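Review box. Two proteins, two foldings.
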Amino acid sequence: MITRDHWPAIGLGISQIVGYGTLMYAYAILLPHMAEDLGLSLSGVFGILSLGLFFGGMLSPVAGKLVDRFGGRWVMTLGSVVAAGSVMSLGHVQTTTGLLIAILLAEGAGMFVLYNVAFASVARLDLSLPPQTSISIITLFGGVASTIFWPLTLALYTAMGWQSTWTVLGIALLLICTPIHFFTLRGAETLPGSPPKSPRPNWPELTGAMRRQGMLWMVISFVCSGYIMGAVMTLWVTNVQDIGHSAAMAALAGAVIGPFKTVGRFFEMLVSRNMYPRVTYALSLGLMLAGFAVLLVVGFTLPGLMLAAALYGMGDGIKTIARGTLPLALFGAKGYGTRLGWISFVQMGINASAPFAFAWITQSFGGWWSFMVMALCLCGAIATFRLIPDPRLEAAATPDQSPAL
């Protein structure tokens, strides 16, 4: 049953559809056409996007710290205003420098309105729902961003060109996201400087040396599992064509990924009351790796391709939830926004190079080998995940220190 406490997560979920659609997915459709008109190569224009992603990662800790200090209402409201203006400015660029400045502004502002800040913002609200449930609801909506905005952006570009398309997308971001952030996040919050509610009262945190070890291996695992995201977004069609499918079939299979992200998140939401985030993350990695295994073995067939896309989509959808809930479970609620910001800074700083690295592999060795290296990245994520200490086991192993009677 939907209660009043569900509305902040539902509102943020809707804003994530528009936010990711305008600030991430629209680039795949519009940047190649912008490159032609601005006299840039495809690698050059995506190189500018990589710089924007890196710059956004640098600002992510700032956004998280502001949410920890002041709550998310004004951070996300003002962030959506700046992001909307930056998206609209992309429709007016005429030089490479102008494009660079507009993308830097857009991706920098994006760090104040996308998932990490949304997770931290809803965790600060004084709600009856545990943060894990709210995070699951937010990502449930966000999974359809690509399914909606790839065809929508293409239709707008076909009708009016990239200049007007950016303007329309920016106006949509302003009119939809700004009021959502202002009104849905106006509820009571925990006091500045005090932690929001923990995900579960019986989930112990890591302590001492285990805490540092857990952070190290968790971040490395997040980097390995996240490194392939940008490559899949930009090279899926190219690689699938390279293993023997038409562009139409490759695009169709790519469209399957988005809805199955939502399927995975809906499944996680149904079982999240009994699922520890460490298990959630392991499930996501297993599904993603299974998708690549199917793709590498029988991906040359249409059923194999579709099954691979579905498995990968489910795993990637669940991984987004785990990216927010695992740090909360392992390290607690205090400083949660700042912690997510620093994790995002490291992850985005490294992962910005992924489109170029995998494009080189595709050009040099072919799409099959590019997918193989993506699968190896997931193997690395699984290997490092296994090194993350489980605080439940640590707590169980701690002897009772109470004095004997």
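Next protein.
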Amino acid sequence: MFKRYRRLRKNYAIRSMVRETVLNEEDFVYPLFIVEGNNIKKEIKSLPGNFHWSVDRLDELVEDIVRAGVKGVIIFGIPNYKDDVGSGAYDDEGIVQKAVREIKRIAPDIWVITDVCMCEYTSHGHCGIVIDNSVDNDETLKYIAKIALSHAQSGADMVAPSDMMDGRVGAIRSILDENGYKDVSIMAYSAKYASAFYGPFREAADCCPEFGDRKSYQMDPANSREAMLEIQEDIDEGADIVMIKPALPYLDIIKMTRDKFDNPIAAYSVSGEFAMIKAAAALGVIDEKAIVLESLTSIKRAGADIIITYHAIDVARWIRRD
């Protein structure tokens, strides 16, 4: 006698009762791109439905996020001024710092994460201090730590170093603790791959490197065991949450991380993943809602606790309506 597994697929009621993986609006973090200036809400061409926002328009965006039920945001700042050391990244009146204060004023309960990196702020577009045409790891740590401290002082709940310098988590944890910010947590971009899926983001954040590429500090897409070493090191240095980026092409890395570590896992469903779905939907060859829900479910099923996605607001609304 064969087993009749279809009995538990008979209709929506039973399928929903036995469903192993369920998306909730609490799963999502929404990326924000904040620019200098006033009265700016400008759609990002490479990320349809996402916008560059000026700080004075954030009330409109934050209210939309709250209504959707999304609990967290991650902030990326695009400054007007750039220099060799990315000084705008740790300026108390920098774009991220102003955005954090304004979001916390509008909605104090939103969990505010800040991207801690230098590529948006440096004239050369690299994620650290360049010496002799190479990003100097140890010199960069000093600046990354300063940026994280500045974000904490502005009211960030969590800082997220994305530079992939060795030792950055420990440097950040030390400077935060020394300055009385022991409760500010760290979400480390622990396995951030040198991926071709970042193209739309680099347009949105204006952060393409002026020379070379980022392969000397971001991870080789061919490697998985190396990711486990990076994640272990970040946990040992004090990371509260570890992140895998991108998400869909690296579901195996998410699963390996879930099997090996107990820390919460974030997965960043990046701009290229989003843009491909939007492009296919615009051509009418896929059902956008169905594809998005299936894709994000696969990320959670692989082991992610938190999903950073440009679909966050839409998905949270779909979940509530369904």
